[in-house]
């Protein structure tokens, strides 16, 4: 019996007499019969059927006294399902799988995922299968889900991370590791506030200022409740096997306290400061945004050339070019490169600012690009990041031109009150009328736009809160350099290090209403001796205490505290996510001690700097440990043409709609097989349809195996044979045929490869190999061979192997396709009696394991290698016969006579004769003779096609390998005249294609103007058509002989 736990409470024990209701007492008496212990508090945990009955839950549960996250619960009833137990077999009521009757109802119909998925997921969750096991002998595997923003429906990018993370989680759970995947959502300050404001305007016709902060925040919390419920429903629909008892929101009470504590600790260490700095300002949102939240978009614009007249000689001027004429009003210098000979003589002189008339100096700085514009740069430190840095180096003043709404302020004269774009137009008209404008020319501009609102961001000097990052970045840099944190793919390590080594201070304050309030209080007093001051504190009482210490002579009636109205950057709270989820700053919680650091952080490469870098910096500073050991970065989801998905292009796919139409498993497998680390993901409905077809294939395989096995054998007989195979594979292997040895070898090889690939985060390769094995090796080959074995005396071995391989296939596929595999596995175990092996569900079943000594000693030995080569020969023979049939138009139902000649290898003859029945069935032959004959390999040139084919006495002779030749009877099995007509048409069509391509490749203009890849593709296609033409000509020659006969 395996017991797992979730969060436990730090409040008084629910088992104390004062807390026990009558129901609790009844349950406690039943509880005393069997015992297990919670690792957190040593409270006895038991699985009792009475408990299941009176709680009305599908799974057993208690709530013990350790580490509850919210410290709130009823004293009468347990608030959370906290243990998972594998139930022991009791009589005939050993398994309670509620959807088995539904499978039975659907069994003889095509696969219908919409009728099964919800029932399966509800059973998983209610049974507690997603809770972590308690196994101190194994290192826990932990993932903190990147919290989706509460801004609406999830998109295909969310489906990617859910798929990849759930693959890792389900794999490690099946490997019996204590596995924890913590879900949650993010408050997303800017994005959510925008949407709530929009909703308020649409529904009530009001702004947030009109209803006030308190009512607006109430609306925001209502929005959060609605969206969180919808998002978690979507995550469940995607199959996320999260521990929902630990679900978090970034503004939960406990996480808010963690954010507050982190701010205070960083401030007390000197990492957080308040100051004026040039920030990216969003006029529409009325807040600062970080550099990472600004996208530079290439747009059509103009370069405006104008005169900067010299003070001592107004008839002379320096020509200057700018893309933003409205900022001329705030210029404080003109800057040139110190080595630019055009301007050497005027460095140090004064020039006149147009319209304003202010005198400003000409300075020199190496930051100027002499090749841009005229080589002279106007300097506006208050409105440009490059100018700001130049201004700092030269001690220049800052002149702010704009209000917070991007209208011009009192420093702009008659342009005051104009929008910045209108100011640009009117000022340029003024300069043209006064002879200061030289020209304008079209120019592609990199326009900074807000990721959230899409508006043009304005650089403005503002009083903000910042984090000093240079020191914080040092351990985060060493973590990558020392290998303490591995980044997959590794090429992103260089990108990460380059950014971290040149990191700027982080602006963490936002002028918003929705978000974490800064734990900062300001002192407002009537006392003249006290300037406006602030303290950082955990509460207003603590702030008052600190102010009294700071100003001991200040009378209390003169003190009024005002809390900072700014909120923190969303990425500040998200940066604490991996450890705040587990109880930090309380580092004594069981969750924190057991599950921190996280094992893996799986996320998109597009937020490497937004989020990953900040988690690493804050993790080291606040916990002294890396927040995780591995960073796996996936790419962006694009359409089949590689284009970004957008509403404008009409190529957006809603994962929920696609899952509703094709099934969740098909979507997950399509994503898994397409997703390679760090690479963008080409995605289309064609891929989903292909995997839906694979799901149908799985359903049909399951139906075939169970129907045929149960027709012939009882459950006890099957279970005994299955256990014998599992316990003694060596004895079993020595008594079976080539096909059985082949499929078992390939299965074990697959287990080794897939296990290694998932551990190396090569999920796409792993998924593809499993699909290929199931579809090709198992379904197309072994199952087809198994159909020929039912009449043989050892057919129980065939039935057993079908069950065994199918069981392992479903286990290997489960992380990728959890719903259909669980359904098929439950039905297999129920129908074939395997439930007596005491495994309750596939989601917690053991990952396939192999005995390495057995594999290397017997399965992968030289003798097996030889037998497998014989089976490869068997498959090549079947493929060759099938190809001859297809090439010469033999009807699918028409059986042909076949002779298989083998040269020198007598053991191969014996092996092929053992598979006589399978050869006949798979190649669809009337008779199939296998004989050792060396002389047939010496051609008498009766009719040689010159293309590896010969015709003799009504048979086509084809060389399969140097030691195998197949003769396939054609005479009487085809209509030669009709076939010659078909082949002639095919030849003529190929000839036209060859002539077209040859003409194109002979054209010098094409060779000169076409891209090299297009030319190469045409050459390869021409070669392919020429080879096909030769083959068709050979076939025509042979069919002509048949016509003449």
TrEMBL record:
Positions of the Methionyl/Valyl/Leucyl/Isoleucyl-tRNA synthetase anticodon-binding domain: 741-899
Superkingdom in the source lineage: Eukaryota
Pfam family for this entry, one: Val_tRNA-synt_C
GO biological process: valyl-tRNA aminoacylation
Subcellular location as annotated: Cytoplasm
One annotated GO molecular function: valine-tRNA ligase activity
GO cellular component: cytosol
EC number: 6.1.1.9
Catalysed reaction equations from the record: tRNA(Val) + L-valine + ATP = L-valyl-tRNA(Val) + AMP + diphosphate
Coiled-coil regions listed in the entry: 980-1035
Keyword ATP-binding found: yes
Domain named Aminoacyl-tRNA synthetase class Ia: residues: 120-683
Start and end residues of each Valyl-tRNA synthetase tRNA-binding arm domain: 977-1034
Keywords on record: Aminoacyl-tRNA synthetase, ATP-binding, Coiled coil, Cytoplasm, Ligase, Nucleotide-binding, Protein biosynthesis
Assembly: Monomer.
Protein family (similarity comment): Belongs to the class-I aminoacyl-tRNA synthetase family.
Protein name as annotated: valine--tRNA ligase
Species this chain originates from: Galdieria yellowstonensis
């Amino acid at each position: 019996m395996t017991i797992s736990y979730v969060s436990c409470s730090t409040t008084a024990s629910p088992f104390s007499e004062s807390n026990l209701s009558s129901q609790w007492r009844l349950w406690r008496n039943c509880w005393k019969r069997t015992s297990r212990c919670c690792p957190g508090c040593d409270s006895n945990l038991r699985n009792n059927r009475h408990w299941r009955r009176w709680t009305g839950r599908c799974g057993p549960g208690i709530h013990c006294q350790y580490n509850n996250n919210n410290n709130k619960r009823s004293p009468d009833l347990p608030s959370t399902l906290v243990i998972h137990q594998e139930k022991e077999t009791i009589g005939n009521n050993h398994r309670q799988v509620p959807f088995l009757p539904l499978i039975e109802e659907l069994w003889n119909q095509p696969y219908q995922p919409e009728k099964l998925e919800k029932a399966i997921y509800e059973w998983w969750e209610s049974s507690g299968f997603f809770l972590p096991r308690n196994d101190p002998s194994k290192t826990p595997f932990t993932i903190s889900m990147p919290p989706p923003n509460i801004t609406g429906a999830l998109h295909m990018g969310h489906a990617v991370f859910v798929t990849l993370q759930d693959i890792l989680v389900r794999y490690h759970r099946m490997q019996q590791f204590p596995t924890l995947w913590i879900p949650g959502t993010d408050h997303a300050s800017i994005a959510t506030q925008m949407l709530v404001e929009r909703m308020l305007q649409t529904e009530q016709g009001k702004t947030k200022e009109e209803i006030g902060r308190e009512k607006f925040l109430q609306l925001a919390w209502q929005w959060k409740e609605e969206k969180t419920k919808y998002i978690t429903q979507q995550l469940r629909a995607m199959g996320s096997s999260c521990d929902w008892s630990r679900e978090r929101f970034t503004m939960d009470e406990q996480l808010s306290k963690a954010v507050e504590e982190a701010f205070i600790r960083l401030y007390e260490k000197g990492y957080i400061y308040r100051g004026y700095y040039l920030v990216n300002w969003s006029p529409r949102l009325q807040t600062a945004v970080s550099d990472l939240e600004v996208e530079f978009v290439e747009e059509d614009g103009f370069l405006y050339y104008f005169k900067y007249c010299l003070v001592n000689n107004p008839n002379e001027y320096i020509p200057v070019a700018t893309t933003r004429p409205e900022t001329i009003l705030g210029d404080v210098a003109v800057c040139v490169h110190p080595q630019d000979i055009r301007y050497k003589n005027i460095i140090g002189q004064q020039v006149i600012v147009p319209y304003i008339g202010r005198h400003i100096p000409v300075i020199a700085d190496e930051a100027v690009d002499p090749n841009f514009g005229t080589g002279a740069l106007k300097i506006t430190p208050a409105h440009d990041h490059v100018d700001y840095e130049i201004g700092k180096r030269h001690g220049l003043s800052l002149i702010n031109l704009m209000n917070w709404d991007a209208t011009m302020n009192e420093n702009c004269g008659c342009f005051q009150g104009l929008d910045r774009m209108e100011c640009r137009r009117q000022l340029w008209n003024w300069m043209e009328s006064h002879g200061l404008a030289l020209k304008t020319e079209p120019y592609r501009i990199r326009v900074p736009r807000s990721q959230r609102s899409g508006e043009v961001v304005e650089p403005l000097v503002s009083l903000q809160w910042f984090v000093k990052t240079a020191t914080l970045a040092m351990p985060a840099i060493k973590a990558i350099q020392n290998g303490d944190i591995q980044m997959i793919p590794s090429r992103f390590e260089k990108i990460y290090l380059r950014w971290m080594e040149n990191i700027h201070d982080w602006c963490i304050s936002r002028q918003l209403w929705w978000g974490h309030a800064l734990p900062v209080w300001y002192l407002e007093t009537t006392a003249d001796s006290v300037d406006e001051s602030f303290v950082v504190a955990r509460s207003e009482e603590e702030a008052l205490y600190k102010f009294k210490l700071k100003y001991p002579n200040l009378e209390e009636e003169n003190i009024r505290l005002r809390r900072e109205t700014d909120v923190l950057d969303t990425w500040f709270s998200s940066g604490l996510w991996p450890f705040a989820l587990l109880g930090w700053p309380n580092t004594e919680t069981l969750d924190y001690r057991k599950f921190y650091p996280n094992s893996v952080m799986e996320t998109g490469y597009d937020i490497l700097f937004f989020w990953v870098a900040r988690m690493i910096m804050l993790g080291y500073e606040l916990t002294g440990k890396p927040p995780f050991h591995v960073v796996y970065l996936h790419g962006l989801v694009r359409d089949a043409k590689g284009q970004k998905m957008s509403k404008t292009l009409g190529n957006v796919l809603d994962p929920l709609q696609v899952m509703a139409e094709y099934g969740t498993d098909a979507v997950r497998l399509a994503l898994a097989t397409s997703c390679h680390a760090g690479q963008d993901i080409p995605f289309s409905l064609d891929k989903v349809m292909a995997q839906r077809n694979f799901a149908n294939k799985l359903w049909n395989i399951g139906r075939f195996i169970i129907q045929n096995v149960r027709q012939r054998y009882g459950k006890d007989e099957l279970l005994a044979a299955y256990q014998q195979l599992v316990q003694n594979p060596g004895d079993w292997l020595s008594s079976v045929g080539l096909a059985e040895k082949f499929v078992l070898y390939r299965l074990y090889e697959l287990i080794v490869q897939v296990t290694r690939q998932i551990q190396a985060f090569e999920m796409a390769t792993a998924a593809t190999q499993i699909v290929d094995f199931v579809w090709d090796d198992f379904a197309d080959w072994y199952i087809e061979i198994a159909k020929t074995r039912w009449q043989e005396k050892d057919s129980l071995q065939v039935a057993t192997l079908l069950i065994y391989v199918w069981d392992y296939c479903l286990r290997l596929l489960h992380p990728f396709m959890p719903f259909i595999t669980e359904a098929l596995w439950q039905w297999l175990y129920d129908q074939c009696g395997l439930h007596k092996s005491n495994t309750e569900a596939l989601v917690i079943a053991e990952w396939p394991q192999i005995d390495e000594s057995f594999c290397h000693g017997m399965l992968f030995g030289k003798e097996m290698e030889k037998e497998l080569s014989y089976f490869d020969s068997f498959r090549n023979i079947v493929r060759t016969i099938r190809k001859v049939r297809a090439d010469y138009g033999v009807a699918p139902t028409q059986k042909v006579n076949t002779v298989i000649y083998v040269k020198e290898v007598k053991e191969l003859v014996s092996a092929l004769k053992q598979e006589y029945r399978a050869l006949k069935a798979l190649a669809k032959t009337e008779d199939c003779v296998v004989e050792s004959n060396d002389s047939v390999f010496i051609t008498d040139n009766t009719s040689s096609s010159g293309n590896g084919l010969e015709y003799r006495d009504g048979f086509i002779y084809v060389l399969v390998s140097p030691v195998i030749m197949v003769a396939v009877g054609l005479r009487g099995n085809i209509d030669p005249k009709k076939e010659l007509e078909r082949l002639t048409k095919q030849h003529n069509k190929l000839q036209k294609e060859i002539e077209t391509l040859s003409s194109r490749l002979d054209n010098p203009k094409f060779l000169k103007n076409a891209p090299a890849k297009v030319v190469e593709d045409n050459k390869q296609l021409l070669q392919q058509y020429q080879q096909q033409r030769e083959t068709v000509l050979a076939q025509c020659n042979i069919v002509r002989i048949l016509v003449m006969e």
